[in-house]
């Protein structure tokens, strides 16, 4: 499935003469999503050691979930300076993953443990844990609850209080399931998702699961110039009050504020 995903993206961004023949039947099966080229509005410093797994805007600051066993934490970060203003550690044996806010609390996932940690959004004090089945990759909140990715083509919608499963959604790109969905953010009712090891963010219709747009981060990835193969684009935060969209990546030195064309 991962290898198939590369074909429609090549078909989307490459000249027709460069598209492999194998991509032609796939492209004909369903409309291709629109390619969206963002404008960089501003650049802010970011901890280049942070293995970013979740990023949100909350309480006037960025809040970030950082991964890797023994290094995982949830931190509040001042946007202008990149300084960590508060930090809560995740148990050393656990790999921290996606992060979302819900009614004065933060919820952070772990990769393989099936444990979600609950934190005070203001103090980062640990408030308890919840359990879920499967892997934890990305997490986001909408008006009704939480939505989780697990590296597959399936998004799972959870009750925010108990993490009970409410429904699942298969994400499709040009008519085929799209795997490797990672960090998530909800923006104006649509779900944005990083795709692991890809310089693109996909925009997903939460009703149908169809990818309706592809945000092209290739110029930003090229500017970062990371040599670490795991220093991939991962991190999307939305400041709804000021309508600002931020993106970053694992071990990136920069948080980018971007604007999408109308």
From TrEMBL:
Gene3D superfamilies: YVTN repeat-like/Quinoprotein amine dehydrogenase (2.130.10.10)
Protein name: Glutamine cyclotransferase
Top-level taxon in the UniProt lineage: Bacteria
Organism: Sphingomonas ginsenosidimutans
Keywords, in A-Z order: Signal, Transferase
Signal peptide segment: 1-22
GO MF, one example: glutaminyl-peptide cyclotransferase activity
InterPro entries listed in its UniProt record: QCT (IPR007788), WD40/YVTN_repeat-like_dom_sf (IPR015943)
């Amino acid at each position: 499935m991962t290898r198939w995903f590369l074909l429609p993206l090549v078909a989307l961004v490459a000249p027709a003469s460069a598209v492999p023949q194998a991509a032609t039947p796939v492209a004909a099966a369903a409309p291709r999503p629109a390619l969206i080229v963002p404008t960089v509005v501003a650049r802010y410093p970011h901890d280049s050691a942070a293995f970013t797994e979740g990023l949100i805007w909350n309480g006037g600051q960025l809040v970030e979930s950082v991964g890797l066993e023994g290094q995982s934490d949830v931190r509040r970060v001042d946007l202008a300076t990149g300084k960590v203003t508060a930090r809560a550690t995740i148990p050393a044996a656990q790999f921290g993953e996606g992060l979302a806010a819900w009614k004065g609390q933060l919820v952070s996932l772990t990769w393989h443990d099936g444990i979600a940690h609950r934190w005070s959004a203001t103090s980062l004090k640990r408030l308890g844990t919840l359990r879920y089945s499967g892997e934890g990759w990305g997490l986001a909140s909408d008006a009704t609850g939480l939505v989780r990715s697990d590296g597959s083509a399936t998004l799972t919608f959870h009750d925010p209080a108990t993490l009970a499963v409410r429904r699942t959604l298969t994400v499709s790109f040009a008519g085929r399931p799209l795997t490797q969905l990672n960090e998530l953010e909800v923006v104006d009712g649509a779900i944005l998702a990083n795709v692991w090891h890809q310089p693109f963010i996909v925009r997903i219709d939460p009703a149908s699961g169809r990818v309706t747009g592809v945000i092209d981060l290739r110029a930003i990835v090229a500017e970062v110039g990371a040599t670490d193969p795991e220093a991939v684009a991962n991190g999307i935060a939305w400041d709804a009050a000021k309508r600002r969209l931020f993106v970053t990546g694992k071990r990136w030195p920069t948080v980018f504020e971007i604007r999408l064309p109308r």
